[in-house]
Specification:
mainly alpha; His-Me finger endonuclease fold; 5 helices; binds zinc ion
Length: about 110
């Protein structure tokens, strides 16, 4: 259909980002994020500070690496972590290790 291509971002990544963004605003997304917040005890799991208002939703398996076979991970609560902006921008890699220790089963599905 569309012939417009973005030279910096593959179309699939763009589509998945859009899907995630719509989901995050939807009531399903809102309640999933509330569940996540509570399960994290309202803390950033990286620095253990209280999550600020402008927390980021971090994907353990990044959207940029997703394709049509695993794009469901974009809105899979097991693939999401709420981080403070500072940690999301600087220490994302630490989180993956921490969570793989806590959630081995989730880790398997993320790798697959
Ligand atoms: Zn943090």
């Amino acid at each position: 259909m569309g012939t417009v291509t973005n030279p910096t971002l593959p179309n699939m990544t763009k589509t998945i980002r859009q899907t995630f963004s719509n989901w995050r605003k939807s009531s399903n997304g809102q309640s999933a994020i509330q569940i996540l917040k509570r399960s994290q005890r309202f803390l950033c799991p990286s620095c253990l500070q209280h999550l600020p208002q402008d927390y980021h939703v971090h994907h353990l398996f990044p959207i940029s690496k997703m394709d049509s076979s695993n794009s469901n991970l974009a809105i899979d609560i097991n693939n999401l972590v709420l981080l403070c902006p500072k940690c999301n921008l600087s220490q994302g890699a630490k989180i993956d290790t921490r969570f793989s220790d806590l959630e081995p089963e989730d880790r398997v599905s993320i790798d697959g």
